[in-house]
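Onboarding guide, step 5: your first structure request.
Type a short instruction followed by the sequence, for example:

Predict the 3D structure of this protein.
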Amino acid sequence: MNKFTLCFVLVLSSVWFGCSRGDKHASNATGNGSISQTLHGYEVVTNAINTRNWDTLRGLTRKEMRANDYIQAWEKNPVRVGKLISVDKDSYYLDGKPCVTYSFAWEPQDGTSSVHQFQILIREENGKSTILDFWNFGW
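The system replies with structure tokens like these:
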């Protein structure tokens, strides 16, 4: 096989496998805070914050959520969601149903340290994760 054919096959296979994988983060958001089980519920939110995709974040909110106010603040003062610190299952109930609170390190873009955490409240049932709210938690 000559070099041109080899390069062509490699490029073609890269395009094929890259496209067939798809973008599961974009396709699983439903606009009402629900996503399919193929993602952890928090991944759509944390990825959107880290890439500054404010439209995606707004698409996951409802009027009554605290997240709306926080999104406006994050647009002005960008932050980054760091590593997952804790997962608190079944200690918070909403409408009699258990919810999960995910807590992450909260990292200002300027590289300074922060005592704040980023938290996401999610209900996971029947194979779906529903984002109930997300916020900056600090002392």
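Each response can be followed by summary notes, for example: Residues 121 and 133 are 5 Å apart (CA to CA).
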